[in-house]
């Protein structure tokens, strides 16, 4: 492996870890807004389930040494939460780096 490839792998590893933390922190911060029994509350539960599944998948991929798929999974998981926050399924902090709202 050349020096450039080593740097690239180190960059991917750092970014993968950063995106995992971002998704885990966003899951902890996102609170369901609508009543859980309402259709929007059920949609929020489905969005959260998708984000949690992508977090688990990303950890599995990373443990198998597949950093590219791990990074993609963490990114997709965060996208589910961020989209849910933008359409009002989750109450999220307006300040900070966790969400784009």
| Count of the domains | 1
Q: Distance between termini?
A: 41 Å
Q: Output the radius of gyration.
A: 15 Å
Taken in chain order, the helices and strands follow as HEHHE
Name the CATH superfamily classification: AF1782-like
The CATH topology is: Substrate Binding Domain Of Dnak, Chain:A, Domain 2
Number of strands: 2
| Number of alpha- plus pi-helical segments | 3
Strand content: under 5%
Shape: elongated
Helix content: over 70%
Provide keyphrases for this structure.
101 residues; two-stranded antiparallel sheet; elongated; 2 strands; mainly alpha; Substrate Binding Domain Of Dnak, Chain:A, Domain 2; 71% helix
Mind explaining what this structure looks like?
The protein contains three helices and two strands, in the order H-E-H-H-E. By secondary structure, the protein is mainly α. The protein has a single domain (19-91), classed as Up-down Bundle (Substrate Binding Domain Of Dnak, Chain:A, Domain 2). It has a two-stranded antiparallel ribbon with strand order 1-2. Helix 1 (3-29) runs parallel beside helix 3 and helix 2 runs antiparallel to helix 3. The longest helix is centred in the first third of the chain and has 27 residues, at 3-29. The protein is elongated and about 50 Å long. The mean pLDDT is 93.
Give the secondary structure arrangement, pairings included:
Elements lengths: L2 H27 L1 E2 L6 H25 L3 H20 L3 E2 L10
Antiparallel strand pairs: 1-2
């Amino acid at each position: 492996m050349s020096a450039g490839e080593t740097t690239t792998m180190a960059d991917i590893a750092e970014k993968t870890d950063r995106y995992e933390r971002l998704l885990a922190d966003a899951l902890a911060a996102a609170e369901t807004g609508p009543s859980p029994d309402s259709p929007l509350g059920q949609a929020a539960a489905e969005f959260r389930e998708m984000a949690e599944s992508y977090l688990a998948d990303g950890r599995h991929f990373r443990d198998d040494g597949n950093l590219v798929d791990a990074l993609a999974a963490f990114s997709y998981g965060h996208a589910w939460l961020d989209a849910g926050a933008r359409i009002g399924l989750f109450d999220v902090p307006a300040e900070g780096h966790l969400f784009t709202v």
